[in-house]
Amino acid sequence: MELVTSIGLIAAFLTTVSSLPQVIKTIRLKETRDISFWMWAFLACGIILWFIYGILKNDLPIILANGISLFLVLIVLGLKIRYK
């Protein structure tokens, strides 16, 4: 594996895992009052664009990181809507 791809995969892992604590806390506490809907909505839009960019560039680290990140962000947004 190329060094550049390895760096990309490590970066993808770290940035994707960074949202896990919020997802776990939100699921556990069923509390979303302190979570900004619009911040997470804008983040989701940005991640969708990065995901599309990764597909167009055929860049595996970008596709993986943003596909998983989008899934996690959508969980938080769904819980935010559910637990207003």
Defining traits:
83% helix; membrane; 4 helices; PQ loop repeat protein; Monooxygenase; mainly alpha; 84 residues; 0% strand; PQ-loop_rpt
Largest sheet: none
Low-confidence stretches: none
Q: The CATH topology is what?
A: Monooxygenase
Order of helix and strand elements from N to C terminus: HHHH
Percent of residues in helices: over 70%
InterPro entries: PQ-loop_rpt, SemiSWEET
Keywords: Membrane, Transmembrane, Transmembrane helix
GO molecular function: sugar transmembrane transporter activity
Subcellular location: Membrane
Please characterize this protein's 3D structure.
By secondary structure, the protein is an all-alpha fold. The chain contains four helices and no strands. The radius of gyration is 14 Å and the shape is elongated. The chain starts with a helix and ends with a helix. Keywords: Membrane, Transmembrane, Transmembrane helix.
Quick synopsis:
By secondary structure, the protein is mainly α.
Annotate the secondary structure layout:
Layout: H1 3-17, H2 20-29, H3 37-57, H4 60-83
Helix pairs in contact: 1-4, 2-4, 3-4
